[in-house]
Amino acid sequence: MPRQLLPDTAETDGDGSLLIGGCRVVDLAEEFGTPLLVYDEAHLRARCQEAIAAFDGKVAYASKAFLCRAMAKLAYEEGMSIDVATGGEYGIARAAGVPAASLVFHGNNKSGVELNMALRDGVGRVVVDSFDELDRIEALVADGAPAPRVLIRVNPGIEVHTLDEVATGVPDSKFGFPLAAGDAERALARAGGSGAMELVGTHIHIGSQVFSAANFADALATLGPTVRGWGLDEFVVGGGLGVPYVTGEEAPTITQWAAGIRRACDELGITAAVSAEPGRSIAAAAGITVYRVGTIKEIEGVRTYVAVDGGMSDNPRPVLYGSGYETFLPRSVAAERPRTITLVGKHCESGDKLVVDGAVPDDLMVGDVIATPVTGAYGQSMGSNYNKVLRPPVVFVADGDARLVVRRETLEDLLATDLG
């Protein structure tokens, strides 16, 4: 198993078994059951610290990547503000003890209820996404809500090398005010002239899982004249930095990404304070998902299906985006993996495939604990109860201690909102 795809503290004990945070993964599977999400707390903290250093403290954690109260508390403890996009994300961050002033409220369709809650709590920033949202803010302030500090989200209209489903800065996008159409300038003028808000900056986000730093530079170049012309104090470049998921993929580190952004801003004469919103690059490689093998079905001349006790409900990215992952056995993490399998879940869908061409040792057997790395972002957060499968627990590990931060769902949880 490639070491670079495992969390920072990953190591092996005397018999070749994987330890993360000083805890044996196979023992965690016995203690907490499977499926199970295991996060390396030291890895999470290290990436938060790297982001803080790279952007001089002006950085928000993009909570859509992975959010629970423990994660919100950890990011805030490390000095990050937190980017939230719904009332639910906002509520979890607040329940974790994060002050409203340390939250950045995103979203292309914030409701009046969400905006009213955020404004009256004193949210740090509102990233405005539409003229309708400007209307809502002005109406709420007229009704007595405090005037917020806002950033205008600009759609630079550039193509990026990523999946269409996660490209957000292209001309055809539901996000932001289009630059080329003149909407961005009109939105900036309206916000700047409104007594219902304080315009403090501009914001862009070009997409997710972007490997090329040049894409970010292209977006900055497109937006440079607008940022310089308005002379606002803040410029947020969003997130979207990609991470390697499989052998052979490479991506810039957070430090390298930040350096490229700063260099581009300097060349363009952008003097605003530059900040960013990393999410995937903080959480993805910190987590692995642990399953137990239930069946091995060999179809001669076709493929070998290995079915586990989770599936598309705990990691929908392969089904949604065709995302690739590696497979390995935590009991023998460094073992050769000559056998090719297709790792599938237990859902009633032929497309319920976690890894199409997974590599495993020849001695894989029913009952084995099997894992997929780099599942710390957009697995748990995008998960579902499809087929009424119970969502798996989340464990943080550090210094030999395993801490349950999200318990496994129960049938009672499923029935709690079902009124019969």
TrEMBL record:
Entry's EC annotation: 4.1.1.20
Domain (Orn/DAP/Arg decarboxylase 2 N-terminal) ranges: 42-284
Metabolic or biological pathway, per its Swiss-Prot or TrEMBL entry: Amino-acid biosynthesis; L-lysine biosynthesis via DAP pathway; L-lysine from DL-2,6-diaminopimelate: step 1/1
Catalytic reaction(s) noted: meso-2,6-diaminopimelate + H(+) = L-lysine + CO2
Record has Lyase as a keyword: yes
EC main group: lyase
Active site: 348
Single GO biological process annotation from the record: lysine biosynthetic process via diaminopimelate
Cofactor(s), names only, from the UniProt record: pyridoxal 5'-phosphate
PANTHER family xref list: DIAMINOPIMELATE DECARBOXYLASE, GROUP IV DECARBOXYLASE
HAMAP family: LysA
Name the UniProt record assigns to this protein: Diaminopimelate decarboxylase
Species classification: Bacteria, Bacillati, Actinomycetota, Acidimicrobiia, Acidimicrobiales
